[in-house]
Design brief:
The structure is a homodimer. Chain A is an alpha+beta fold. Helix content of chain A is about 45%, strand content about 15%. In chain A, strands 1-2-3-5-4 form a 5-stranded antiparallel sheet, with helices on one face. Chain A has a two-stranded antiparallel ribbon with strand order 6-9. In chain A, strands 7-8 form a two-stranded antiparallel ribbon. In chain A, a hairpin with a 2-residue loop joins strand 4 and strand 5. The two termini of chain A are about 35 Å apart. The model of chain A has no long low-confidence stretch (mean pLDDT about 95). At the A-B interface, helix 1, strand 1 and strand 7 of A face helix 1, strand 1 and strand 7 of B.
Chain lengths: ~325, ~325
């Protein structure tokens, strides 16, 4: 939620000369996305978002992210469409950073989703999975089992500084997941970060999915397990089965799930909870308290992990 | 340049029910203004800016600031116009902060002003001074001689920690200004912070003046002296007399200056440089290095102060 790199009107006027989208009429740094700098750009033709990719995004991944957005936009998914310059290029350099202009989407993210919102998100995630079929570039998920191990090693003994006994809990959870992680389930491109701040609504209708910078190839049902963690808990971290039921209903109406996928949900949900617990814990120690980015509380995901560990079967999620 | 207070779509939908400007279609936190939180608000009718007033703004001053913006907008000055709700009120409470919706202005601030930009700024400042005549509310300038004394006392011995010998320089400069500060010059409402980031251009034409939250009653020529400091030095802090000439030409074409005003310019310019040197120095010690707001270098204004101290007469400014 920050603007890390300063862009001048002079930079933008030079950039826009390479496009056929009109001259600059306004621009503002906006607080959207945690990894990159974003500017709202108004030209004589329309509004756009200019994203500058900061160091946490690997430049080699940009053809995957930007190609995926264009591929999905072509198929009608409401997501930002990268705008090509007069030479057909999407990727630019602005203020010494890789950068891209994408279309502006109406709508706004909501803080307190209702079951109707959850059902809409489920349907959009199903559409995302179907629309992404056939996308040619591949990107492995760096934040699955192997990545979690690397994060745990990097955090090391500090997990017990955060909370006594946490290190042992993490090791147990990891060992369980390593043993039980499913293979052979339907796989494809997943969003991998479809939290409420990355979904725009107009009323109960979804007007946009944004922030594709964790997208990768992995099990489709794992993406749904991430959404279950992100959308179906209350502010006091209590699980809301009505919302989970709505999410799963919306998803399966678009993309029916296989039996093994449904059975694997508790395990996948534990994995999703561990993934966000570990990145939050890592950031907790690596981010200064007064930094531009607000640190998110790892405890929230520890509680979610413990909830999923207590689940005996997918039926408890309302499916 | 930050969003300090988090506003939800739920907050905004509730707020917009009190207005006749259509339903919410998008909103983004924007990096504009250093004192307040700002959101770009799109509704079915148009775009607006929502400002939440943070603790550095005195609530008692809001009728002055908002009243002035409406007064000037009524007279045709391109500035944000506060939007009245169905009950005729401008001031609201949002997320437990005083807040107001104002109209969105096209244009963008520039980093490297040309003499043509400086002439346009001079003319707009003259227009501001003329248009503000007759505005009924008064607000004394808290950042004039008395305020500088308070800041110097608050900074205390720390000025020498910033730079050896600085404390003595400040005392000398202050004593000079206290002795020479003019009285009896034309006074009125001044903007008091018309820096490049508070002026929007479309090409060489000014499309908006923003950020009225330092406006107050003071000597009109002091406002021009602030602009001379803000617009007429190069990035290496060298004075550019061509830009000063253009600024003064633009200003006097709209509002001719009296002889005593012209004579007082070197003194007023020293005062303006001291004012920004002191607030930057104060913020230097009071703002953590990693805070949301980037600290501005006090040295820039020490060099400007020393330049103005070397000026023998207003003729050296090109007038």
């Amino acid at each position: 939620m920050a603007v890390y790199t300063d862009v001048t009107a002079e930079d933008l006027n030079a950039l826009l000369e390479r496009y056929d989208i009109g001259g600059l009429t306004a621009f503002k740094g906006i607080a959207e996305g945690v990894e990159n700098s974003n500017y709202l750009l108004a030209t004589q033709s329309a509004q756009y978002i200019l994203t500058l990719y900061e160091k946490r995004v690997d430049e080699g991944d940009l053809p995957f992210f930007l190609g995926l957005m264009e591929y999905l936009a072509d198929r009608g998914l409401p997501c930002p469409r990268p705008v090509r310059d007069l030479g057909g290029h999407v990727l630019q350099m602005v203020a010494e950073r890789p950068a891209a202009i994408v279309t502006f989407l109406q709508g706004y993210s909501i803080r307190k989703p209702t079951p109707a919102h959850c059902e809409a998100v489920g349907a959009s995630l199903g559409q995302f999975h179907r629309d992404a079929e056939g996308f040619a570039i591949r990107r492995p998920n760096g934040l699955s089992l192997k990545g979690w191990r690397l994060l745990m090693d990097a955090i090391g003994a500090r997990s017990d500084l955060f909370k006594a006994g946490l290190g042992r809990k993490l090791e147990h959870a990891y060992a369980d997941l390593e043993r039980a992680w499913p293979s052979g389930l339907p796989a494809g491109v997943i969003h991998a970060d479809l939290f409420p701040n990355n979904v725009f609504f107009l009323g109960n209708r979804i007007s946009g999915l944004i922030d594709f910078y964790f997208a990768c190839n992995d099990l489709l049902a794992y993406d749904l397990a991430i959404c279950m963690n992100a959308w179906c808990f209350e502010i006091d971290h209590a699980f809301n089965v009505t919302k989970a039921k709505a999410l799963l209903k919306g998803y399966t109406a678009v993309r029916p799930m296989t039996g093994p996928e449904i059975e694997a949900l508790p395990c996948l949900a534990q994995g999703a909870a561990l993934r966000f617990l570990l990145t939050r814990l890592y950031d907790w120690f690596e981010t200064p308290e007064t930094a531009l980015v607000k640190r998110l509380d790892p405890n929230e995901y520890l509680r979610k992990l413990e909830f999923h560990q207590s689940v005996r079967s997918a039926g408890e999620y309302g499916i």
